[in-house]
Structures are given as structure tokens and as C-alpha cells.
Design brief:
By secondary structure, the chain is of the alpha/beta class. It has two domains: about 1-95, Rossmann fold; about 105-209, Rossmann fold. It contains six helices and ten strands. The protein has an eight-stranded mixed sheet with strand order 3-2-1-4-5-6-7-10, covered by helices on one side. A hairpin with a 2-residue loop joins strand 8 (about 185-190) and strand 9 (about 190-195). Helix 1 (about 15-20) packs across helix 6 (about 160-180). It is globular. The structure holds 5-O-phosphono-beta-D-ribofuranosylamine (GRF). The site of 5-O-phosphono-beta-D-ribofuranosylamine has 13 residues, from helix 1 and strand 5.
């Protein structure tokens, strides 16, 4: 089984979905930059190795990221998963883990990188919104796309209702992407991800929900 380190900052619902999916992975550590993150408490309840690394106790991003990277390396992961990790990673950090770093983002990238994606989708009046799992590269929210899921935007949607509809899909696609990685089915060529054996195009999921 591949060794996975999970990074998170908050609620941890994506992390919980990963645990509940019973994937062929070993979660060797769960690290949060916020000591009080609910996701870290859940990791402890699951008997996992839960580690708090408070970014406010470090001089700057480079110093924190260097310590974070050292901590991750101690667990010798094959894959590092960003499950709601709400800090921008420095280029030096990304270089150390490139190719084994997956992120979930709550929009159909390359639309709406960054924060407040649901608010911005509503402001723009898009009719379809969704979420993306991608490999992390130095350009924020722009790495090779592994899988996306789309949801309809309804006339009466608020950021909260839209976000809830997207979150259901996040909980489907993140475990799927990790399963493919664990099965060694992902190949990146010229910035595009090929899923070996994905004849039914599972890398595009849609929902009428
Ligand atoms: C999710 O919407 C994820 O896409 C974004 O941050 C949120 C984390 O939620 N990166 P949770 O902590 O997994 O519940």
C-alpha cells in the first residue's frame, strides 16, 4: 500500500471522505497548521498519527514550509494530499513534492482559482460549477487536472447552498483520484493527465443533484 500524508487546516470533511472510502492506502500522518482544526480531532479519533504544526509560531512562510516539508519527509510518503489545506505553499516546498502532491479545489479550474469560488461563480452567473482534483505545481490552482465534477447552478442558490452541492461531489472525486494514484494509473504528459484504463471517462463526473 502507498504511504499517504494528509495536510488540512479546518473541518476535514474531505479527509473524512477519504478515510470512509477505504482506499488501498496507509495514512501515515495527518498534519494541520491549525492545532484546533476539527479534521485533526477526527484523525485522533481514528487512531491516526495527528500532528499540529502551528504556522503562527514561525517567522515566515519559507521557515514554516521548510519545517513542514521536513516533517512530511519523516513519514516517507508516496503521496501528499491537500485536503482543505488553506495556506499557499512556497515554490521550494512544491519542488520537493511535485508529482506526488494532489489538491482539491472547489471550482471547475481553470475558472475561479483562489478563494471565494462559490461567491464568484454566482456573481459571474455561470450555469455550471463544480470541483477539481489536480496535481500541484508552482502556479496556484493550475496544475494538471486529474478529475472534475460538475453541478448545476440554480436560480435561488446562495454561496452556502452551492457550496454544499459542490462538497458532495468533492467527497466523490477526491477518493477516486487517490485510488487512481494508488493504483499507479495516472500519467502526466505535457500538462495533461491520462488515466490508464479509464474507458468510461470516470474522470468527468456530473451530477443533476
Ligand atoms: C473544500 O471546499 C476544498 O475544496 C477546499 O477547502 C474546503 C475544505 O473543506 N480546498 P473540508 O475541510 O475538507 O471540509
Amino acid at each position: 500500500m502507498i504511504r499517504v500524508v494528509v495536510l488540512l487546516s479546518g473541518r476535514g470533511s474531505n479527509f473524512q471522505a477519504i478515510v470512509e472510502a477505504t482506499l488501498p492506502i496507509e495514512i501515515v500522518a495527518v498534519i494541520s497548521n491549525r492545532p484546533l482544526a476539527a479534521g485533526l480531532a477526527y484523525a485522533r479519533e481514528q487512531g491516526l498519527n495527528a500532528i499540529a504544526l502551528d504556522h503562527t509560531a514561525h517567522a515566515d512562510r519559507a521557515a514554516f514550509d521548510a519545517q513542514l516539508a521536513d516533517e512530511i519527509e519523516r513519514h516517507q510518503p508516496d503521496l501528499v494530499v491537500l485536503a482543505g489545506y488553506m495556506r499557499i505553499l512556497s515554490p521550494a516546498f512544491i519542488a520537493r513534492f511535485e508529482g506526488r502532491l494532489l489538491n482539491i479545489h472547489p471550482s471547475l479550474l481553470p475558472m475561479f482559482p483562489g478563494l471565494k469560488t462559490h461567491e464568484r461563480a454566482l456573481e459571474e452567473g455561470v450555469k455550471i460549477h463544480g470541483c477539481t482534483v489536480h496535481f500541484v505545481t508552482a502556479q496556484l490552482d493550475h496544475g494538471p487536472i486529474v478529475i472534475q465534477a460538475a453541478v448545476p447552478v440554480r436560480a435561488d442558490d446562495t454561496p452556502a447552498t452551492l457550496s454544499a452541492r459542490v462538497l458532495v461531489q468533492e467527497h466523490r472525486i477526491f477518493p477516486q483520484a487517490i485510488r487512481w494514484f494508488a493504483e499507479d494509473r495516472l500519467r502526466v504528459q505535457q500538462g495533461r493527465v491520462n488515466v490508464r484504463g479509464d474507458s468510461t471517462s470516470q474522470s468527468v463526473l456530473s451530477s443533476g443533484a
